[in-house]
């Protein structure tokens, strides 16, 4: 038997009436590098999007923690940044933990390195989550009411918003989330993008998204 096949098989020998089971030892030279990490990402399954924490990762898969209702065999997508999106399949699930096998080997160095600006002067952004909720923007005695259409840990996209000056800072209020100071990054017509001066807490946004998606499910 060649050394490659011996890794996947158990050798069992009988001697003097005693059963001796020799468990194969993985060839560490060929095993994929597995790294313990604490990354945040977006997991998408059955068109539902929720944040997840990545606890360890290799080029072939990852262990995650999430509130998403996942089942073994589910096809999923996991997004680390806007330029790092991978497909995979749930191989195991226990409580809030699950294991993903990637469809194709991934580039660990690209995932682990700090995001930089590309040649096209575009900086990859954190994952965004679709939503449609009312928002209030407050500046002094003036209040602007509009609607959020997507949200991330550090930003919100708005629609039906009055003209606002890029660079202006205002207070953003969304029901169920803590109030935050934000900066207007861009404003085109009735749409605008704002960046939080201090990001949402991961667990706060995770719980808010889970509650809003449950409320949006058909009865």
If you had to describe this structure to a student in words, what would you say it looks like?
The protein is mainly β and about 220 residues long. It has two domains: about 35-110, predicted glycosyltransferase like domains (Thrombin, subunit H); about 130-215, predicted glycosyltransferase like domains (Thrombin, subunit H), CATH 2.40.10. It contains three helices and 14 strands. The strands form three sheets. Strands 3-4-5-8-7-6 form a six-stranded antiparallel barrel. It is elongated, with a radius of gyration of 23 Å. The model is unreliable at about 1-25 and about 115-120 (pLDDT under 50).
In brief, what are we looking at here?
The chain has helices at 3-8, 108-112, 202-216, and strands spanning 11-15, 18-22, 34-45, 48-58, 61-66, 75-81, 84-94, 97-102, 129-139, 142-151, 155-159, 169-173, 180-188, 191-196.
**What general form does the structure show?**
elongated
Query: Residue share in helices?
Result: 10-25%
Please identify the structural class as seen in this structure: mainly beta
Mean pLDDT, to the nearest integer, reads 83
CATH class of the largest domain: Mainly Beta
Order of helices and strands: HEEEEEEEEHEEEEEEH
> Radius of gyration, Cα only, in angstroms?
23 Å
**C-alpha termini separation:** 58 Å
Number of helices: 3
* Whole-number count of domains: 2
CATH architecture of the largest domain: Beta Barrel
Strand order of the largest sheet: 3-4-5-8-7-6
Unreliable runs, pLDDT <50, ≥5 residues? 1-26, 116-121
CATH fold assignment of the largest domain: Thrombin, subunit H
Strand content: over 45%
Strand runs, count: 14
Task: Report the CATH superfamily of the largest domain.
Answer: predicted glycosyltransferase like domains
Largest sheet: 6 strands, antiparallel, barrel
